[in-house]
Please model this.
Amino acid sequence: MATQTSNSINRTLHIGDTFTPLKWGVFAVKKFLLFDRWLEGKTIFDPTMGDGVLLRSLVELGIKKGFPIKDMPIKNLFGNEMNTEHFKNSIKIFEQKYHIDMSKNFSNQDILEFGSKKFDILFGNPPWQNFVDLPENYKNILKDYFYRYDLVKNKKDLLLGRSRIDIASLIIQKSIKDNL
Model:
């Protein structure tokens, strides 16, 4: 799955780059019983994984519970990150820390171009940034998506800074519709 986006501008963007601390990821895994569901065979997908901390939180909790990595369903963890630097870093962290090759499970593309591959559980923290604060060339790409996923009534609603809608709403809407 380690594919790269055709839209080269997206691969270097830093949109909403605020990464979840590992302890918060572990907290969420415990709170929503994700570890047990993962052990039962559910697939878990982080559509905007950054450096993969939410997916790593499942592995970390497993280690704390005494599970050997080889006994964890690592093949059921999937992630996507549009920023190439973060994407490569996530693969590197899994390799160095856990000796796991995630290159087939992680992809490097804009989630909006990801397609409709389905997963059992979405587990993510989307970038939080208002549409008006995005780079102009990326705004032009996103306008159709905001309309397609029913977040604006018409594309003109996004013109001249009239929209304070956040890109997180678009990523959540898209991921639920196409990937859950």
DSSP finds six helices and four strands in the chain. The first strand starts at residue 44 and ends at 46. Residues 84-98 form the longest helix (15 residues).
